[in-house]
Amino acid sequence: MEIHATYVVRQLNKIVNNYWRGPWISYNSTPKQVKDLWWNEFKRKFSWDESEENEVRRIFKKKTGDHIQNVMTKAKRSQMKPDFITGDDWTKIKRIWESEKNKKRNEQTKKNRASSSSEGSATYARGSINIREHRKRMANELQTELTYTATFGRTFQKKNKTWIGDRAKSIKVCKVILWTLWKLE
Questions:
Q1: Residue 23's closest CA among 109, 101, 86?
Q2: Domain ranges of the chain
């Protein structure tokens, strides 16, 4: 039975939400015992070959961190408490956001993001669905097997067909890099 990546990520997000008990604003600010609890719950739901453990754990950390970041960004912008965060924790989270240390870090992050350098990574433009899932959906929609170039174009271009950045544009023309990316598939 094939399990879709989007299903796995949704289940991971549910685990995090169900066991969220604290004023955490990032994966790194979450206590180790809570991260271990999330990981153990995830392992109860899913299984994989033991040789894949380190890679699954790495992806788990990345996806968990992404989820927390998305939750915090949405909550901060809307100033609305997510249902799974207690009132007391919400008050503490808002205090953290208002702290001078946090404001300085956010300002530096904003500056880093604003610098348009072609040296950085290519920015993915298609939300939470991974590139492999986009490729499957596009193939279904178009009733044909897609080239790697076409899939890359759709996932790293804006809807108006302009490239997200210089890096994505330059990768498009470099078939060696594309082959390396897809070899991981």
A1: 86
A2: 5-114, 131-183
d(CA 167, CA 119): 7
Helices (H) and strands (E) in the chain, counts: 9, 0
DSSP H or E stretch at residue 39: helix 32-45
**Rounded-to-integer distance, Cα 145 and Cα 135, Å:** 9
Backbone angles phi, psi at 143, to 5 degrees: 55, 40
pLDDT digits (tens, 9 = 90+) for 119-145: 455 555 556 677 777 788 888 888 888
Q: Long-range CB contacts (< 8 A, 24+ apart) of 146-151?
A: 148/178, 148/179, 148/181, 148/182, 149/175, 149/178
Q: How large is the greatest C-alpha to C-alpha distance in the chain, in angstroms?
A: 54
Q: pTM here?
A: 0.62
Alpha-helical segments (H) within 79-147:
87-98, 100-114, 131-142
Q: Which residues pair with 163 in a beta bridge?
A: 157
| CB 104, CB 36: distance < 8 Å | no
- Please tell me the distance from the alpha carbon of residue 59 to that of residue 57, in angstroms, as a whole number: 5
